TrEMBL record:
<dbReference type="Pfam" id="PF04020">
    <property type="entry name" value="Phage_holin_4_2"/>
</dbReference>
<feature type="transmembrane region" description="Helical">
    <location>
        <begin position="53"/>
        <end position="77"/>
    </location>
</feature>
<keyword id="KW-1133">Transmembrane helix</keyword>
<feature type="transmembrane region" description="Helical">
    <location>
        <begin position="89"/>
        <end position="110"/>
    </location>
</feature>
<keyword id="KW-0472">Membrane</keyword>
<feature type="transmembrane region" description="Helical">
    <location>
        <begin position="28"/>
        <end position="46"/>
    </location>
</feature>
<protein>
    <recommendedName>
        <fullName>Integral membrane protein</fullName>
    </recommendedName>
</protein>
<keyword id="KW-0812">Transmembrane</keyword>
<dbReference type="InterPro" id="IPR007165">
    <property type="entry name" value="Phage_holin_4_2"/>
</dbReference>
Length: 116
């Protein structure tokens, strides 16, 4: 159930990011749904390898380079999913930060619900 909840929240977050961030576009709800699924798969499969490869840069920047890795994961997702376009690195970076904030609140919400 938590997985479906996270998928729906990430879908809505992608739609909100498309509305708020210039240069990030999502055509339809269906495209956002597929994009959230693909982004989850990319983050589960490819992101760990990239984090290991970029570990020195992440240490030097005190962890801030992870946002660059997240932006690259968004760019990769946008090349796979039709209906999602990113106009450059800055919109991808801003979207990565936005999705991080949404994920932070989602984790707090789920953690709070488990405690009750």
């Amino acid at each position: 159930m938590k997985l479906i909840f996270r998928w729906l929240i990430n879908t809505l977050a992608l739609l909100a990011a498309a509305y708020l961030i210039p240069g990030f576009h999502v055509d339809t709800f269906y495209a956002a749904l597929i994009a959230a699924l693909v982004l989850g798969l990319v983050n589960a499969i490819i992101r760990p390898f990239l984090l290991i490869l970029t570990l020195p840069a992440t240490i030097v920047t005190l962890g801030l380079f992870i946002f660059v890795v997240n932006a690259l994961m968004l760019w990769l997702m946008s090349t796979v999913v039709k209906g999602v376009t990113i106009d450059g690195f800055v919109p991808a970076f801003m979207t990565a930060i936005f999705l991080w904030v949404v994920g932070l609140f989602t984790n707090m919400l789920i953690h709070h619900a488990e405690e009750s």
